[in-house]
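Memo to structure team: turn this sequence into structure tokens by end of day. - J.P.
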Amino acid sequence: MYDCIVIGAGHAGCEAALASARLNKKTLLITGNLNMTGSMPCNPSIGGPAKGIVVREIDALGGEMARNADKTQIQVKMLNSSKGPAVRALRFQSDKRMYPREMLKTLQNQANLDLLEGYVERFLVKDNKACGVLFDGKEIESKSVIITTGTYMRSRILRGHNFKEEGPDAQKTSSGISNELKELGFEVIRLKTGTPSRIFTDSIDFSKGQVEYGDKENWHFSFDEIDYDRPSVPCYLIYTNEETKKIILDNLDKSAMYGGVVEGVGPRYCPSIEDKIVRFKDKERHQIFLEPESLEINETYVQGFSTSMPEDVQDKMIRTLPGLENCRVKRYAYAIEYDAINPMQLKPTLESKMIEGLYFAGQVNGTSGYEEAACQGLMAGINSSLKLDGKDPLILKRNEAYIGVLIDDLITKGIRDPYRLLTSRAEYRLLLRHDNADERLMKYGHDIGLLDEAKYQKYLDKKELIDKYTELLKQMKIAPKKANPYLLENEKIELNETTSAYDLLKRPELDYKDIIKLFDLDVKEEVIEAIEITAKYSGYINKANEQAKRMLEAENIRIKEDFDYDSIKNLASEAKEKLKKIRPLTIGQAMRISGVNPADITQLLFALRK
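Reply from structure team:
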């Protein structure tokens, strides 16, 4: 008897299993191939806009992805560093071979966690409760089950008009769980994604590309801030051309996507190269990045060039790219179709509304990306454990975390294509920053029991320093006579009167590095940078907090899960249908449902008051 069984060891499964085991639950992780644990079948990178902040949030809650990314990075960049703090995000190029290997080691060394290699035939349900799985003809009992099957449910690989029933990286696909979900009444949907070719690195002429180096700064995803002394390797930027475009347009009917072979809906924000060419015919060229896959293998990833064309057409397409005229192809690009569920059938805890104790996390919920998968796995592992302990669930709000935005979007709005987290999806993105994930979430991680005392104390010490130096900077003054020589030398605006260090931080042309020099401060950069963000953007932050406060008032008005919407006479038919289907838990969630209008909310509030 296990407390929790996790099916699948992708990024969602790893986080779910580790969270469950670390919360003292006897946990079993079952996966088809342990060597593919935490694998990166598409781009070997972690982070990016919004996604990088999610990785920080995972770390603040006590998850593993950030630590593993720090261990295995081969290039580091802070994106949008010249822009405002709301859109800054880390992106690491990861070592494709090392990342899964290190994650597997972490799993193998985790107490309360057993690993089993093979395929689940069915999950077991009794009296509408998940109670285990059928594996190799034997029943394994469990109090909860978390499904994290990624893109492996009834998956098939497509190149041109040919397809093969298999998962990413030629792994075995699974159909049993998909069929069982349909039998139980789950709405199973068909989605598509893809991946570009891999090229032998030593066959590329990199002199024809624009070199893209990583940052010199020693960035970390994890708040542990451990340095692993990894080498940094460059990427290269190249572009498609008219010849590329002509080959694609001349062969569109051979593409799986445009030839009628693809059933699933593809990702809107990461389209194939043929989709880009068709949708943006007026563009002369599209950018392509050549990215190293690992320090251990002779392979380069052609980012931005995914396709479902047959191999012979792909071969012509690739050789139109600068530097790839004489390249050798290790593996051709492909599209992959797979089954997912409608996430609107889930509770905010990621537990099924129909089967108690059955949780879903990752791409099976219709998302795309390793980071989106990992954070869902973490939340499913946390909430399944909290439920077994009879404790309240952890449901992150939209003003608290990108994780909260993602899950709320999934269960409230559903998906039409693979969901990708974007900064524009978060209405409170100035509150959800790279620098303050610890401030927002570490107390949750600590109180639940995932974050150890040392890491939490480090955060408390940082918070104390921020408070201390905020007051100190308000008291420290500088006269124009002392400040202006430095300001003039660095082409900054002069002072006309004595000013505090804190007020100087508010000036747009100055940053915390200027304040350190002007006042000869001995303070950690992360401390004074946090103070600078608060000083510079206090007006915007206060406004966002006020908006969030109004949102929270609506979130505090609860709706019972079995509320009778048919009893509300003046409720519009569409609203009634949507509310009955989604079963929102709060008025705030009801307000975010497409098709539910302000007039419907008024009627609902009136009925609740009655």
